[in-house]
Amino acid sequence: GDFVTFRPRGFDHLVPKHGLFVKRIAAMGGDQLQVIRGELRINGKGAGRVDPIILAHVGRNESPLADVGSIPEGWVLLLGESQGSFDGRYFGLVAVGDVGGKAWPVW
């Protein structure tokens, strides 16, 4: 998926005042999510583990994706490129209206 910029709601303390997150759109409205024994699955395919240490750091016992099922229209799941990324596994879905724009990674 495309890389996009955004600010996750409720986590302003983790981002400088004018800073943005950059993550990849991994799933969108209509896609199916499951968290089974700590593994995130998108449409039945493995998409990474949910790290209990990161969950504890943000004050959660389980991923906010645990009970999503089908992603509602107008929402996206944003994931980072590494297993240790602070991403949608920990802050949940992002409203399409909260996505600031497209980003292009330069390697």
Give the number of DSSP strands: 8
Q: In terms of per-residue confidence, which ranges show pLDDT below 50 for 5 or more consecutive residues?
A: none
End-to-end gap: 17 Å
Strand content: 25-35%
- Average pLDDT, rounded to a whole number, is 90
**Total number of helical segments?**
2
Shape: globular
Which percent range fits the helix content? under 10%
Could you please describe the fold and organization of this structure?
The structure is a single chain. The chain is built from two helices and eight strands. The strands form two sheets. It has a five-stranded antiparallel sheet. It is globular and about 35 Å long. It has helices at residues 52-57, 88-91; strands at 3-6, 21-28, 33-36, 39-42, 45-49, 75-79, 94-95, 99-103. The longest helix is centred in the middle third of the chain and has 6 residues, at 52-57.
